Amino acid sequence: MTNRTHFVLIKREGLARDGRALSALESAKALVDGGVWPLWEHTRNRKSIGAGAKLAVYLAGQGGKVIATACARDVTPWSASLARRYPLVLDGVPEAAIHLQDVRMLPTPVQVRSRIGELSFLVGRNASKWGVAFMGGTRAVSEQDFRVLTTPARLPGVAVCIGCGCDDMHACEEGCWWLRVDREVQLGVCSSCATHVSRWDAGDRSLSEESLAEDL
Ligand SMILES: [Zn+2]
Ligand SMILES: [Zn+2]
Predict the structure, then answer these.
(1) What is the per-residue pLDDT across 37-57, written as a single tens digit (0 to 9) for each?
(2) How many Cβ atoms are within 10 Å of 104's Cβ, its own excluded?
């Protein structure tokens, strides 16, 4: 398959409709809460992002970090009714709208600076210039790079349950063991979370809402 399926959505600071200045985080949250992410005319990848695409929400400026993941339920042409519901002042001419589903806030943001050595598209780049790789509204990334961008830092060797967020150092109250564990990505499914085994076996490594609520 040559279709790109993993993308980074880049958000900068913006303006609320009442003119209030919003940080990149506030702007991104407003879009994610509204469930619609605009694609501007001339935005890179606007024709490649389709239903089922996996998305990472990246905040530009102030270090650059990934704060959430989502999935594209659908991509539709921009419309007047979308414009009416849009929570921010439009930054440009929207061409299409990504309708988001399965939005998950990361328990701790991933600072891109700390992952430079692991991202294939930054290898060989001047370490001080990597921010350039996150311009243009969106960026297509490989599945591996997507995982690096969306997996919060963990203690070396400690695996986390994708169902409940328990880990090697903090088992579930009733005691638990790994039904599945991948030491390389530091993720697993513990014995309290058997209902997550089927999605794990289908290749889904995303952390559930419940596991993200856990204080790691
Ligand atoms: Zn669990
Ligand atoms: Zn557990």
Answers:
(1) 999 998 989 899 999 999 999
(2) 18
